[in-house]
Amino acid sequence: MEAVDIRQLYDSDPRLTFIVDCHERPASICHVNSALVAIAPIASSIHVHNAFRDWWHPDSRAPTREQSTFLHGRLRWSKFLACQRWLVVTASEKKEPPLDKLHPSPNPGSVPTPQQSNSLTCPTETIFSVKIQSPALREHIDYIRNIDWAATSLGPIDQWGYELSFLVTTLMLETRPGALFLGPEHIIIYNLAYAGVSGRRHPQILGRSIIDAWPEVADPVNATVERTRGAEFIDAPEEEYHFMVERYGYVEEAFFMWGLVPLVGPIDGLYSIVTEVTKQRLLERRVNALLRVGQLTSTARDAETFWTAIHESVKPYEYDFPTAILYSTFELDTTSSVSSFRSTPKTCNLEWTIGYRKDHPSIPKTLDLEQDEGLARALSYSSKRESASLFRKEDGILPNDIFDDVEKRAFGDPGIALIVIPLRISDDTVSGYLCVGLNTRRPFDEEYQDWIQVYSNLLGASAGSVALHEEEARGRKRAIEQATKDREVLNAEVAVLTQEANDVAERLQNFHDVANRVGLGYFEFDVNGKLVHANDAYFLQSGYPTDPNAPEFTFVERVYPPDIEKTMAQWHTLVAGNPVKFEMRWKRNPDKESGSEEDTRDYLWILSACVPIKSEDGTVIGISGCNTDVSAQKEATRAALLRVEAERRLASFTELAPIGFYYLNPTLEMQYCNDKWFEITGHPKVPNDQIQWPDVILPEDIETIYKDVEIILREKRPHAFSFRLKKSWVGPDGFSSPTWILATATAEVDEEGNSKSIIGTLTDISNLKWAETIQKIRVEEALESKRQQENFIDMTSHEMRNPLSAMVQCADSVSSSLGEMLDIIREDGTLVCKLKDLIDSSLEAIDTIQTCATHQKRIVDDILTLSKLDSKLLIISPIAIQPSVLLQDTLKMFKGEAHKAGVSLEVQTEASVADMGIDWAILDPSRVLQVLINLITNAIKFTQDQSLRNVEVIMGASKGPDKRPGIEYVPQEALREDFLQQDECEGGDIFYLHFMVRDTGCGLTPDHKAKLFMRFSQATPKTHVQYGGSGLGLFISRELTEMQGGSIGVHSSQDEGSTFTFYIKSRRANAPHRYDARNSRNATKSAGGLPTRTKADHTKNVTASSSRQTATPSPPPPPLSPPVTAYHILIVEDNLINQRVLSTQLKKRGCSIQVANHGAEALAELSKTSFWKSPTTDSPLNLSVVLMDVEMPVMDGLTCAKRIRELQESGEIVGHVPIIAVSANARREQVEQARMVGMDDAISKPFRIPELMTKIRKLVGGVDGLN
Fold first, then answer.
1. Measured over all CA atoms, what is the biggest interatomic distance in the chain, rounded to whole angstroms?
2. Domain for residue 494, yes or no?
3. What is the pTM assigned to this prediction?
4. Which site from 376, 1075, 1102, 1135 is most exposed, i.e. has the minimal number of CB atoms within 10 Å?
5. DSSP summary character for residue 438
6. Residue 40 is part of a domain; what is its CATH number?
7. pLDDT value for 701
């Protein structure tokens, strides 16, 4: 099937089929099958521009394109789209012509034979026998005569009957287009006039079935036959058809009125009457286009509306305007207040397009008409012509894509020509250019040209009307502006008149009305102070009551109090007969007795010009005057004075300020700077216009400064930046560097928001930069010192813990071996007693080793804890725990040590714990144990040489931080953060736990007690020699108790023993869900302390009363037996001694051991285990756990663990490989780092084998559960 061409399948199909490629542009027929090729008439008709092509063509816009089927050539056609590309068109059903006739005949459905017509008299002359004068008609008759009519149902011409010959003769002599469709096939015979209708089909369709020769008329013919079938009347309706006729060498749009009349009589057929109405329809369509553009543009009042109106009038007429482009040449003349059209525009702007895609490459947004190419050339050419210009594709003036790259409108044809219509307002003014595509199926004949000319004239008239409207609008605007200017001139004249009125007071009486209009307060008083007359402005300014019965001298009440005396003095001057002109103030608020001189809202300034009114004999009978509101002038004067004063003060400040001031214009030229600016920058003191400020700046910083200036101008807000000058600066230590400057600047803006200047300051910050550098150096030195200190501590700890681990493990091994030997000796009493003495001596030595190792480990732990305290890295991690269990675990820890020292160790719980109902509490067990360990260790150490050797550990509780009587508590150095405020510490009420360690040791003197709890301090210089220690234990205990919200103290007398007590802050807690003893121990152990037990682990219940347990001497415990489970362990350790000792100890526990000297060897050993996806050995080892040292050559432990986890992620290692970090690095950060790279747990050297086995069992059990 894959080798078969689909075209071969269609060629073998008997149905008529052709295939269209929709991806080609334009779409075209790519294959016609053999069945369709065999029927030449139908095969040729599918290429013709007709109704059938409009139905199947993918780019057609005809309404019939949406139909699923179409009747063409007596066949019903259907189509479907395959693979989104191939349109398959198939003739699915054959439609036979009707066989019945309107009038039955002896042979239904046929034309009478010659025998049937013998009874009729044949015409003596027919069109075929007479002599024809017209050459055209004679040629047409020859076409008919040469047709093989014998092959049709009509028979040969010489056998045609009378009726048929008469019909044909009559038809041929008819000057109007006419045709006969005869017989069941509707064979066509038409006259010479009808040949023009048929177009290029003439004369091939003569004598052929109309359905095959002209498929477009198949539907009208069949419809007429259907209507007349069986009817009792003749139905001959006349219908109009819009055909595409190929004549005159091209496809032409044409309209026809087509009537079909059934023949009456023995002849079966139809008579076709055709009248072409193309000119009438085109005229109607073009007139409608003119009416629409005239109607839409007539309402436009501005250019924008005018262009939109043209668009709306052109777009619906897609046949006459398949494409359209509109460019406008309106330009605003900015040199005056008048907008006008430029008669010779150089550019034009694109307003819209129709039929073109957006951003067409040959249709730019703006056209330069001076260019001699493309649309610019065409528009420039048309602007010089009075009529529209036609540019055809073959002319080569316009780009080809103007014609080809168009949207499918109208007939869907590519463009053939473009008509450019200049929109003329006048003979020399063009407002725009309308470019329309030529109708692709009509000739550009005289009628077409006349219509385009009328269209052009109509658009030009409309454009002129729009321009006139806009000019009128501009004229109105100019008139309004002129009126405004006239009012301003009038106001100025009124002001001049007002000033003259102040100078010539005696003439005010004649200008009462003018005074009212301009706001001059005119008044007249008699000599007794009674108001005679005043205008509205006076009442408004003074607040004088309008009551005519107001008492005399009422105006005095309206005068601002400080001006009353001056006003009355002027009154007396007027009464004496002298005119006056003075300034005074009216009160704005009549109810306010006094006001502030600074608050201008309390008074109104007026200029009063007054003259005495005299009688004929010269006696003063009244006072007349006018008041002018001068508040605005006063306020302006006051503001000007304040501004001058402010500028003076600013100038003084800028000259005396310790910073440099500068003022730059928008081009960054210096306009002003103070003396300090020259001093800071080192620039020579020259006039401002000679200052070159970039010359003093370090070249490397110039570009950065310009970027900062751009930010200032863009954001228009204060901006600070720093840079360096070429001027050198020398620090106190002799350090020399470029001068550092801190600049602060902002942009001044005008009313339109544009930057008009830059104002800023300069500050010399070289000293600050020098200090920052010094500080940075000091910080780096401090950090380096801290790093070296930590490295030293880590190295010291590592070097001390490594041998300690071997010592402890060797001691465990020897102790275990000697214990077994003792058992053998006890069983066999025949051995020499001397061997028992040697074993006892060895056991004593082993005890000494373990004691020394433990002592050395505690010193290292104290150093590490002190390091964390100094670095503020020690944190308190409270959890829920049972304090009584913590106390019992303390007893268990020191039971063996107390027994060896011969000390009686007891623990006791006070009744206060039970009375308060304390069971679970929130505290940090590791830090509490650390304090107890320090105190109990000291108590045993200082008691073991006494005759009475007792040590008691007592726990109590209280609601508050109650201090025990007789105890001297150490004052707290500083307030500590409450460690119980963390989210995980939410619980019940707060209470305090008290712990007391009482011994019968040597006691302390007052001087000795004063030195306790201090860093590196011991009671006496002999203490270290006699008892050892670092002098850090009590200091660390003090810090830990204070961090837990408590305090520590001591009560002691020499030779009477000592009592150390401390208390911590705690909170009640609920028992954790699913709690068991193992979880409690693990929680305590994970916090950094030793495993604790619950009350269920006690061999004796602790009652509410004071209960006590005592560590009494007992024989050493029997050696540990190997575990039931035999683990397979990989030891990765570079220290061969530790490697050998650890291997021996673990083998004694029944474990299988593999060793590696570094991480690379560990990976190689791991490839031999079942964890490896493809083990390198046939019998892979079932590895249980990896004990990984951290510090190793070649590949360290952290890198190895990280690599193992990466192999797990990639799938090379199957399952989770348990890894325990074994290292002398004991700091919390180092342990956390090991966990972060993939270690599951960690144990610090030195360690006991039982401790290690506990971790292994816990880890391997958890991993097995997960697996």
1. 175
2. no
3. 0.36
4. 1075
5. P
6. 3.30.450
7. 92
